[in-house]
Amino acid sequence: MTALRLPGRYYRLKPTIADPLGHAVEELELGLDDTALLLVDVYGAGFDDEPADGLDGIYAVDQEMRDIVRDRIRPVKDAARAVGLPTVYLTNYLSPGIDEGNEWRNLSLRVTGVDVLTDWKPPTPILEHSKVIAPDDDDVLVRKQYYSGFHETELDSALRNRGVRNLVVVGFDSRLCLGTTVVDALYRNYRVIVLRDCVSTFEWPETREGGWANFVAIRHIECNVGYTSTAEDFRAACATVDAG
Fold first, then answer.
1. Residue 44: phi, psi to the nearest 5?
2. How many domains does the chain have?
3. At CA 186, angle to CA 208 and CA 133, rounded to 5?
4. Is 27 among the domain residues?
5. What is the pLDDT of residues 165-218, one digit of tens each?
6. Rounded mean pLDDT of 152-163?
């Protein structure tokens, strides 16, 4: 086989928003020569067995995130590598375009207490990759400053130079960096498949019970961006290719 056959879930708002048909599943055929795995902001030194210092506040790693990275994203990457799919990492960095007057820097400072001018200055455990999910030498690493991985980066060129048409996406978080990246991917005519059990977002006190912020983010992707699938379905699709 020269393609992955992956069930892609989407959400139908027809015939009316008040009375939608809801979820449907389409079997997607993803060519091995035009598909890539995209990891969005799967960084931070907190996913290895040994504890990491300097990760607190919004950068604290909880058990849910550890489970997603170690038990789902890592096996997904291994499965993608086994069938020859390129792996592209998006990661934040402190770009030279950020100064004390930058509105994004000041937004971060007043809302989260994080001053990227100091807290993102390398080396920092905030932006390091844990060994369990660090890029390999032949992976593509694209650095970004803002939420979307397409904003003022080489991501689009890196994908098009490799003939990529389909993006299988995992990482964080489903509303901000990953969420805006996949919207920008749609604008550039990529077909997007987010592995919905390989993403999460921070929950407000009002949404924490039930995980409603992440629920809405996934529903938004299924209605307005592309498809979702699961880590298990992706690995099964890769295993079928490998066996063939």
1. 110, 140
2. 1
3. 60
4. yes
5. 999 999 999 999 999 999 999 999 999 999 999 999 999 999 999 999 999 999
6. 97
Asked if the structure places residue 111 within a domain, the reply is no
Are the CB atoms for 228 and 196 separated by under 8 Å?
A: yes
Domain holding 144, by residue range, is 3-45+68-95+134-243
Q: How far is CA 128 from CA 174, 184, 195, 205, in A?
A: 20, 25, 23, 29
pLDDT tens per residue across span 76-133: 999 999 999 999 999 999 999 999 999 999 999 999 999 999 999 999 999 999 999 9
CATH number at residue 20: 3.40.50.850
Antiparallel, parallel or unpaired: β 166-172 and 35-40: parallel
Going from the C-alpha of 243 to that of each of 229, 236, 237, the distances in angstroms are 21, 10, 10
Residues 6+ apart with CB under 8 A from 215: none
- 62 part of a folded domain: no
Does residue 113 belong to any structural domain of this protein?
A: no
Sorted by sequence, the CB contacts under 8 Å of residue 185 that are 6+ apart come out as 150, 167, 169, 192, 225
> Which strand ranges, in their side-by-side order, compose the sheet holding 191-200?
20-31, 3-15, 227-229, 191-200, 166-172, 35-40, 87-92, 140-144
At 242 the pLDDT is 58
Decide if 39 contacts 167 (C-beta within 8 A).
no
Say whether pLDDT at 243 is over 80.
Answer: no
Supply 111's token pair.
Answer: 């809302």
Q: What's the length of the chain? A: 244
Q: Is the pTM of this model over 0.90?
A: yes
Read off φ and ψ for residue 206, nearest 5 degrees.
Answer: -75, -20
